[in-house]
Amino acid sequence: MRRREFIKTIFGSAAMWPLLARAQQPPMPVVGFMSGRSPDDSRHLLAAFHQGLGEAGFTEGKNVAIEYRWALGQYDRLPALAADLVKQRVAVLVAVGGDPSAGAAKEATSTIPVVFGIGGDPVKARLVESLARPGGNATGYTLLSPLLEPKRLGMLHDLVPNASVFGVLMNAGFAPAEAQLTTLEKAAETLAQRIEIFKASNDTELAASLDLLGQRKVGALLVMASPYFDTRRDRIIAAAAQNKLPAIYQLREYAADGGLISYGPSITDAYRLGGAYAGQILKGAKPADLPVLQPTKFEFVVNLKTAKALGLAIPAGLISFADEVIE
């Protein structure tokens, strides 16, 4: 072989080495991310999820890929979304944005690891065997927000003690709804506070219930914890403002978007922990060995701008208790 042809052959082969090396590298693991919410109202939650993944050593596009699916508040779409991600053979299936998302993921697979995020009791929902030892292929976090309805009722009572009737917006289709209502009714009885229930589990019912709020003589509004309401919070906040109703909600998002006050667990912290769990599973941890996480951080947020618009003076005691005051 001539010297020039030999050198060309050697250097030509050397140029191929990086390409061959890349071709031989294993593909990046894929995380399936499905949510009952929409991407527009979940940007801050996705940022928290990515933060958790980063804490476990994973960055999207660098050493992990993510497939996103959104139900946009239409929970009947969730089973198909879960089935699609299972078909993609994702390494981990993250199911958030409400209890129906977790249920759909659990039904879709008994082998792919599932990291769920729910508001209710995962044991009663048959997602896990116990909080400490989940067993099976699923683990995650619970916000336990429905258990806080009596606390929210007490705060609202402190805020407007002279209101004869409180309106309560309830999603009867939400799995924990019956337990929510039972505990709320007991708390109302203790406070000698009359409540009137307005039920809504879809857009038609929600529109009807919000219209009724303007017709009934309620002095304040408690919006019970529900992932469906979270996706429709702009409509609910607008109705409360239109009817001049002091209202309390479960998540900071409501107060940040113009709601009067909110009290509940930090949902961004929960998404961060969910991302960290997904990362741990990608490293080899088994869901059965990862205990279900419960909230340790709660947020009480007061929107003074909304209070001013309502002509409402927030008691100093409540303001001093607040974790955040929006002015």
How are the SSEs placed, and which strands pair?
Elements: H1 3-24, E1 30-35, H2 43-55, E2 65-70, H3 78-87, E3 92-96, H4 99-108, E4 114-118, E5 138-142, H5 149-159, E6 165-170, H6 177-191, E7 194-199, H7 203-213, E8 220-223, H8 227-231, H9 233-242, E9 247-249, H10 252-256, E10 261-265, H11 267-282, E11 298-303, H12 304-310, H13 316-321, E12 324-326
Parallel strand pairs: 1-2, 1-3, 3-4, 4-5, 6-7, 6-8, 8-9, 9-10, 11-12
Antiparallel strand pairs: 10-11
- DSSP summary, beta strand count: 12
- Please report the first level of CATH classification, the CATH class of the largest domain: Alpha Beta
Number of domains: 2
What share of the residues lie within helices? 40-55%
Overall, the morphology is elongated
Unreliable spans are 6-11, 17-23
- Beta strand %: 15-25%
Overall pLDDT score: 90
Order of helices and strands: HEHEHEHEEHEHEHEHHEHEHEHHE
Largest sheet: 7 strands, mixed
Tally of helical segments: 13
What would CATH call the architecture of the largest domain?
3-Layer(aba) Sandwich
The CATH homologous superfamily of the largest domain:
Response regulator
- How many whole angstroms does the radius of gyration measure? 24 Å
